[in-house]
Queue: 2 jobs
Job 1
Amino acid sequence: MDAKRYELNVQLAQMLKGGVIMDVTNVEQAKIAEEAGAVAVMALERVPADIRKDGGVARMSDPAMIAAIKKAVSIPVMAKVRIGHFVEAQIIEALKIDYIDESEVLTPADEECHIDKTKFAIPFVCGARNLGEALRRIAEGAAMIRTKGEAGTGNVVEAVRHMRTMNREIRQLVAMPVEEVTGFAKANGIPYELALKVRELGRLPVVNFAAGGIATPADAALMMQLGCDGVFVGSGIFKSATPAVRARAIVKATAYFNDPAKILEASMGLGEAMPGLEISAIPKEQLLAGRGW
Amino acid sequence: MSRAELKPPIAAGGMIGVLDLQGDVCEHLDHLGRLGVAARPVKQAEDFEGLAGLILPGGESTCLARLLQIFDIDKVIIRKFHEGVKLWGTCAGAILLAKSLTGETPHLGLIDIEVERNGFGSQLDSFASEASIPKLSQTPIPLTFIRAPKILSVGEGVDVLLRMGDFIAAAESPGVLVTIFHPELTPSLAFHRYFARKCGFRPGGEETAIDPSWDKTSWMRLARITPMDRRSAEPLAKVLPQEMDHETPEGI
């Protein structure tokens, strides 16, 4: 990926700002998402809630399914590959969709290395729990960041934790004298140049979305008010009682995240949200956010 | 660029709004700020007060169309257009403004052009280029195409500003400007200056296209994480210069 291609890839993410990216598992759901006003769809075989329930190894989806979704909608299509599985990424790139999510929701393929994303022309989005993780992914070539949250739980608490952590670390960096940056970068595993860049910009140098556990219009607006540029909704839509209605409501609440009257309007009469999970009730080895580093 | 470095507005009266539902809103506001044109994000019907022009930014046209419809903003835009407010659509914005959309029902239908969504393919087909448009700038203008649509044809009363191979990249009618590329993602202020003039502003500055102080992160000054909620009421309006003088700009 040359510098110009990387710039174009970061700029596609800029076009998605203020929008909702929805997980879909078939053509029908992709059309519902597009019709509801999603800015992109994430094509995958099972939503995180089912991956969590089924267990076993979760891999890249069948490319035929992803291709069918690509054909059915005009909005950007994203697909997930396993952390470190650069051949899955090569396959998705050859499929010519719009974005790859190197995702902790799938079972990691490499416990030492994430994908060298600079080798690809297709853009990557990666998850992060804190500033260090976000900037390491950017150093590897990610063009967009999202919080990890705890996918498939319908519980927003981890996404909030990750966003607040990033914001706190950014504020620390902005406030500190430059000679303290070296130590801060070392302690947090941050490439020094990127630490300086964040200090200058007062935010991540790429678009940052919220993801993991967002299930209601209020969750989406909460993440936006915490400073995210947009939201991913995974299981929250198609595991709810009324997916089309909920999808539209989350799109509305994300666009008008600062307008309580409009969020109220969007929150009315949505029916049952997806069943939620207490994070503390999940066995430690089944937590997804801890995958990657 | 810090607040203090922002240039004061040169034209008296009115403002240019940027439709703030989804997409690259800050990028347009940053460009307008560089020209010293008063600008603000537009989210609700009442935000249209005092606008001389409105930019429909890049984003996802299906999402924008859905939101315009749900909140009746589409009707306000059409009414304001007939009252003389000038419109400019970049990329998704151009799709929304087109009278004809290949294989689909058009949205606002305020300029007689036919547009094909996703004219080039996937993100791997996004590209950067440049072109000379003597009417706008004496130097070549950089162009950024992101999953761009194509303008296939224009009707009567619509002038082609830029044709590239088998498609039209920029066109205008007396009230509407459309570009399938994103001037707000480049250091060029030429299109923003041109649109500001169309709206009756007289932004100064040299006629060359490039603002050397722009870089690809410039928009982020309007989207910082700060101890104060960066998006609390009217954050952008405070950052950008504005002279609250509501004289009607010339030409309206």
Job 2
Amino acid sequence: MSQAAHTDAEQAAVQAPVKRSSRWKEWSGILKRDKRPLVGIVILLLFMLSAAFAPLLTPYNPSATQFTPLAAPSWHHWLGTTASGQDVWSQFLYGGRISLSVGFFAGFIATALAVILGMLPSYLGGWIDTTMATFTNIMLVIPGLPLLIVITAYVHQTGPVTIALVIGLTGWAWGARILRSQTLSLSRRDFVIASRLSGETQWRVLTGEILPNMLSLVVANLVFATIAAILAEASLEFLGLGNPSVVTWGTMLYWADTGQALLNGAWWWIVPPGLAIALVGLSLSLINFGVDQVSNPRLRLNKVKAARKPRKGAPS
Amino acid sequence: MTSKFLVSADHLTIRFPRTNAPDLIASRAVNLDIAAKETVALVGESGSGKTTTGRALVRLLTPSAGKVWFDGKDVTHIRGQALMRYHRNAQMIFQDPFASLNPFHTVAHHLSRPLTRLRHLKGHEREEALDEILTLVGLTPTAIYREKYPHELSGGQRQRVAIARALAGGPSFIVADEPVSMLDVSLRAEILTLLESLQERRGLSYLYITHDLASARYLAHRIAVMYGGSLVEIAPAEDLVQAPAHPYTRLLLAATPGSAHTGPLPETMQSAPDLSEDRKGCPFAPRCPAVMDRCTKTMPAMITVADGHQAACYLNE
Amino acid sequence: MTEALSVDSLHVSYFTQNGLVPALRNVSLSISSNEILGLVGESGSGKSTMAQAVMRLLKPDTATVDGRILVEGQDLYQLTPEQLRLARWRDIAMVFQSSMNALNPVLSIQEHFTDTMRAHLPDISEAEILKRTADLLGQVRLDPAVARNYAHELSGGMRQRVVIALALALDPHVLLMDEPTTALDVVVQRSILDEIAALQRNRKLAVLFISHDFSLVSGLANRIAVMYAGEIMEITDRGMAIEDVSKHHPYTQGLMRAAPRLIGSKVSIEGIPGEPPDMSQVPPGCPFYDRCPLRLPMCRTTPLPVKTGRVYIRCHAMPDPVSGKAVAHDV
């Protein structure tokens, strides 16, 4: 029988060192070709590190009101002071802690809900699926910020955790819808059907076969949910719906507004939190360009083909 | 049901509901028996119902009517654990080797799952079984192939992995759905001969689904032809190719490249068969050069033409 | 005599991440009017690159093209963009596998014909367009009323017929077909092939018919060129009759032995062990060396001889062929 005898060529190809384009290599290759995700990562890391090491970067308590009010930036106060005599630089650093934590926490909740509510109904099927799809669509058409405002206005004690929870619990619908349709499309693929034939439980099919193929979508969802959460948090706090005594980039803007920073020409009070929010959003978007390339099947396929053998003449 | 046959479709009907239209009947009262160690080819064009029938036999689909028998047992409506036990015996190989393997899993993972789930093997035993199957499908040295991801394999190697996965549970019946149609000619022969030798070594029965009569003739003991959801002819492979008894089979043979037929195609018009529920009569009647009045009214039953050769056509009365 | 299409030492290489990778090497062939040349190859053999190169569809930033491609004596690669636009469709037209899905969904079939004819013949009258369209659709055995339909209202086979009729709208002399029937069912495929053969005879077309299916091509073509790893290994005018197998190039022999047959007694099949070479590291000698059962020591390093002519075999181990009978079973 012919299949018993492999040729020298095939043997040679087989015994050649296994060319493993590991996931890490794939990612580093993308970073080499496209600098945008790298820039995003650097910006985000700068913000995260400065927030984490805030006590080392500033000697002042961000809430302390002991300084000259509305002082312009100087050697002692790099970013000047607020109308109540707080140091803006330390507010900026400590505020980043809460703002980033709330953003990532809320983004994580929204994404986790999107994964569960997007994948599970298609697993359970039947009326649960139909009901969930309807519910998701209703959530999609309710405008986000007004809903947040209404909920936060009803909930007392709107600390950062509450705000994160509210944002996370309302921000999952988009992701859920995308992940649901992707789950449905993947569950019709041959490899999923084959795994059912292999005796896999439906739960295992979902988590072991379908979920890995959606990871990049999940990561992209996490990125966007986090951006949305940081913006929503800033908006709510700017509108005074947060706890104004907690220092965040959002409450900084709230106090700057009530303290009439613009009228007083105190640009140093407004620009740092505003710029920080914008830059973090930008950095996450830049990172998403990289995620996009990992998840775009066409880019990925070409890469694999080129790595294997350039079968350019192959019919499409 | 006698247990003379390993697998049987008994008036197997698969119906897909449609909104605003009569239900679509993809597979209409199909009777098909496959003996142990036998290969039956199921030949037809796209939309003929051959894949639907194959999927129903491994119970990826539940028949709307009729029965599926395996080894004398009714497996039409089994679920859960019973279905899993059935899949130890009945497996499937898919058409596209690029879609039937999960890009995130290694070859070893693809094979160890059915070994674990269907045969409850663990540890050392499982590893040995894994190497044995890889060797069986010609993927040696196994140590190297085990760790490969699908994208690191060629189309032919991937199809070997897919075959190995189907073998892992130790089945006696495999539905091979166009297993070579996506492969290059030189690789097709290797996969077909592999399937052939596996049949001998493992005593397998195949339902070989294909649109290619030449490979059906090569691989199968008997060939069944489907058109428009109905089985129209079944015969020993050589009989079917030499002396087709149904006008559709004649048309298919005439159209196949490499056939001896050189004249105009024996059909009156080109149209897709009507699959809707309200169709009456023979699905081929609108195209049939020998159509009679009653062909459009009632579907002829299978009529025996010769020993083991049956065709659903009034011409053979 | 001027050939309808002649390709002269064509080299095509693609720019890739791994540098310049050859796809076609030293390809020479010619087709006279009134004949069908089949071009057969497996995936990666370069046959689709061939179609694109002949139509000058390869962009300069994706591939380099060397050599000459003459359509009715004019070098396609010397034409200005405007001349090229006119030459395509008028002198050389193309139908490919996905053509039937490339019809514009918002235009009726008639509008496709009108647009094509207007683009090349600005002075043509409406009545003339309608008359020609009906005539062309009739030639591919479609009801001329189909002109009023939209693509989605037609079956795959009907759409591919429309595309073939459309390709003939400006009466080209050379027709290039790249897997035109591959996505279709066997019966539809066969009837379209019948039409292609009839059109070719009636219009004295030169047809380059590219396919992966040896048995399909051997029923249609007058000559068959067999491609492997970017090179033409053989041009033959013999069919795939089982008794002639040993008169072919070793690779062709392998292909013929690999395909199950429908006629004659049942014979065993065997594949060609191994895989085509990595095109970024093609060996200096014969690209089939690794898989060849007839290889000689010299084959590993000595490049294949360059040959021209109606039929030839490029192989160190095989003598040049004597022309056989016509391949086509005259479908």
